[in-house]
Amino acid sequence: MTSNTLRVAFLNQSGASVGGAERTLATFLANRPPDISPIVICFEGGAFTKEMSELGIEVRVIAASLALKSSTRERPTLAGTIAMLPVAWRLASLLRRERIDVLYTNTMKAHFIGALAGRIARVPCLMHFHDIVEGNALGALRFASRFGSSRRIACSNAVATWMGLPNTRAIYGPVDLTVFDSMPSRSEARAQLGLAADVPIVALIGRINRWKGHERFLRIAAEVLNSVDAMFLIVGSPIFRDEDFLDELRASAVKLQLTRNVRFLPWTEDVAGVYAAIDINANCSDREPFGRAVVEAAAAGVPSILFSDSGAAETILGDINGVVVPAGDEKVFANALLRMLERIRLSDYDERAIRETAKRYDARSIAAEMAEEIRLTALDEL
């Protein structure tokens, strides 16, 4: 470490897919202070490592075995656990060779492997938690964190409380609000997506995984459509897991007789164009850790509705940018959605006020908070 620069290794298990954790890391790195000199390390190459390279960031890949890739938090295997050891050893060698000052771990496998590698290389570790995990996985993660890290970041107060570890600071995910400075008009956005111009649109935006509540979304849609006409969009693709879930959702839409009112749109990098086209953003997840889509919707002037058992609920300010309903209560959710649709019909939402609520997630401000934790970690004694 020089007097002015910290050499920081950012460890992320996925180099191929981009989820919320990867988007947080990418946004931080794009807005990092000049004293943070990064190197990104993943266990595979792909879309994420390509994005990092395009940002001008040095990228290394430490290949993981099939046993390690196949072991998940839901179904951990002994072979996967053993396979972590040589990866941790190679990572430790890289940390020493690159004279790394701080190791920043960003995903579940990265936490476990980084905890061991940091100890071997005597490099202080900062863990960034993006998940609400349960059972044995939670116990193991707490142990690894106490063993291998001195400080932690959680993506919300809900996650920080759930982890129950000392030296854990809640820092919300950074969002590049400039993406929403120039948006198409609603009619233009709908025309580009092939959507009707004269019907209210409710969307669930993000990756398609079972815990994200898409089945709930369809049941809620069926309830709402008993009272009003509306279009419901599911925007996203299955990543990390649940590749068969999309077919199940399509079948559910048919069973619920929703094919006229439900559209499936693939994921697009033009998120501003999607938000410009919709009236309401819905989050139906089981305990969403943060809820980036809620912030993005607010940045676009779109209100959200979501359940209370989540970090996403922390992003709602009064009823300015949305409504929080009791966890898991689909009936209350549907009724709240009906009231929100009526408010929108009456122009009872202040789009400018909604946009203001997103400013506390400005990428530069949040990046400064994250950088401060990195600097504090560099000062910790091993």
Name the features.
382 residues, alpha/beta, Rossmann fold, 2 domains, seven-stranded parallel β-sheet, six-stranded parallel β-sheet, 15 helices, 13 strands, globular
Question: Can you describe this structure?
Answer:
With 382 residues, the protein is α/β, with parallel strands linked by helices. It folds into two domains: 6-174 and 362-379, Glycogen Phosphorylase B (Rossmann fold, 3-Layer(aba) Sandwich), CATH 3.40.50; 177-360, Rossmann fold. Helix content is 43%, strand content 16%. It has 15 helices and 13 strands. It has helices spanning 20-30, 47-54, 66-70, 78-97, 108-121, 135-148, 157-163, 186-193, 214-224, 245-255, 271-277, 292-299, 330-345, 351-357, 363-379, and strands at residues 6-12, 36-42, 58-61, 102-105, 125-129, 151-154, 168-170, 201-205, 231-235, 262-265, 280-283, 304-307, 322-325. The strands form two sheets. A seven-stranded parallel sheet has the order 3-2-1-4-5-6-7, with helices on both faces. The chain has a six-stranded parallel sheet with strand order 10-9-8-11-12-13, with helices on both faces. Strand 5, helix 6 (135-148) and strand 6 form a beta-alpha-beta unit. Helix 4 (78-97) packs across helix 5 and helix 9 (214-224) packs across helix 13 (330-345).
